[in-house]
Amino acid sequence: MQIGSAVTAFKQLFSRLILLATCAVLSNAAFAIEAGQYYYFISDKCLPKGPQTPEARGAVTPDVMLFEVVPAGISDYFVNMNTNALIHYAEEGQEHLSSLESEQAYTAGKTLSKESLRKDGNAIQHDFMLQREAIDLKTLINTLNGFSQLQTDKGYFFKKIVALANPNAKFKAITRVRLSDIGYDNRMMLTSYTSDYFMLDKQGKASDTPFITVDHGAALRSSLHDTNSPYAIFTKNSVCGEKWEPGN
Where is the secretion signal located (predicted)? Predict the structure, then answer.
């Protein structure tokens, strides 16, 4: 009787393990990304805009690779951002952002989206944490000096630093990327690419709001089209990348 009970318990445990493994595989498949290089194309949240014939489209679309997604295991990924596309950044700033990609953490989830083509109305959010560390004021200043060289941006950084009363201030630096999949094949939105710097108090607790936010995504988007281009409006808040395929 005891042997029979043990066998039954083992079968139940085995069935549960199979169920959990199946659920994990299905979950991983639901959040899967098409790995590859994603190039900018003119769209409104991945819905194509502008000329659609290959010749006409190529004439008005800058040839810019936005990001590359690289698989790192069954359900893990790395993102490599094209920091060279940040044309107003100093070389040191581009290299700094690229260096942050060597150690990154990936997570995925779902959120409701009115733009989603999926039956459940959700967008799949792929989040990549590139940096999460404490830095001192000198490091922050050196980092900001490598970012946008435009006078408006440099003026903003300067005013924030000059107004800082504590020369020994420390900050929590967080740099992250979000890619959004709303149901288009081989297309993903670059929803955000930012560095936030939160001031730390004496206990090492970060403030709720960042002391400085640097929007690398906005810097990248602003350089894709001239301000008087009819397509510039589509890059105001996000851009869409289309996976490069041989022959395209």
Answer: 1-32
Residue linked to tokens 């851009």 = 239
Cβ-based neighbour number of residue 179 at 10 Å: 24
66, two tokens:
């936005």
pTM of the full predicted structure? 0.86
pLDDT tens digits along 18-76? 433 333 333 344 578 999 999 999 999 999 998 888 889 889 999 999 999 999 877 79
Nearest to 154 by CA among 145, 167, 165, 142: 145
The string of DSSP codes covering 129-163 is EEEEEEEEHHHHHHHHHHSB-SHHHHHHHHHHHHT
Report the C-alpha gap between 88 and 94 in whole angstroms: 10
| Rounded Cα gap, residues 134 and 170, in angstroms | 7
Give how far Cα 19 sits from Cα of 5, 30, 55, 82, Å: 21, 16, 51, 40
Q: Give the separation between CA 214 and CA 235, rounded to whole angstroms.
A: 17
- Picking from 94, 38, 50, 81, the residue whose alpha carbon sits closest to that of residue 225 is 50
- From CA 211, how far away is CA 165, in angstroms rounded? 13
d(CA 21, CA 173): 36
d(CA 151, CA 129): 29
Task: Give the whole-angstrom CA distance, residue 175 versus residue 128.
Answer: 9
Amino acid at 134: A
* Three-state SS at 34: coil
pLDDT digits (tens, 9 = 90+) for 144-186: 999 999 999 999 999 999 999 899 999 999 999 999 999 999 9
